UniProtKB/TrEMBL annotation:
Species for this entry: Notiomystis cincta
Transmembrane segments: 21-42, 72-91
Primary gene name: Timm23
PANTHER family named among the record's database cross-references: MITOCHONDRIAL IMPORT INNER MEMBRANE TRANSLOCASE SUBUNIT TIM23 (PTHR15371:SF39), TIM23 (PTHR15371)
Keywords: Membrane, Transmembrane, Transmembrane helix
Gene Ontology biological-process annotations: protein import into mitochondrial matrix
Name used for this protein in its record: TIM23 translocase
Length: 120
């Protein structure tokens, strides 16, 4: 049996384009950043409050670190994913080709723009 599994509109691609994948990329990076930041915040919170007894102020301080770090990392990775996706879509539309050069160029431009702000 050599038929397709899904019915596609006439002229539609069998794979998702870069623009369609951008939403998954941005959302995935935000969620990954939030999870990593929360774990990092928990680590930092426990380290900074190790001399305190277990009490409400210590719990609140740890939770503050978890939410602060989670939001920081989610925003950072989400912004990078947004830049990468936007550059990728623009390069693909400009060149009219869908290949690995678009990915390399989008990653390079994202890194250059991110580092140009003076962040270390």
């Amino acid at each position: 049996q050599d038929t397709d599994e899904f019915i596609l509109p006439t002229g539609a691609n069998k794979t998702r384009g870069r623009f369609e994948l951008a939403f998954f990329t941005i959302g995935g990076c935000c969620m990954t950043g939030a999870a990593f930041g929360a774990l990092n915040g928990l680590r930092l919170g426990l380290k900074e409050t190790q001399n305190m007894a277990w009490s409400k102020p210590r719990n609140v301080q740890i939770l503050n670190m978890v939410t602060r770090q989670g939001a920081l990392w989610a925003n950072t990775l989400g912004s990078l994913a947004l830049l990468y996706s936007a550059f990728g879509v623009l390069i693909e539309k400009t060149r009219g080709a869908e290949d690995d050069l678009n990915t390399i160029a989008a990653g390079t431009l994202t890194g250059m723009l991110y580092k140009s702000t003076g962040k270390v």
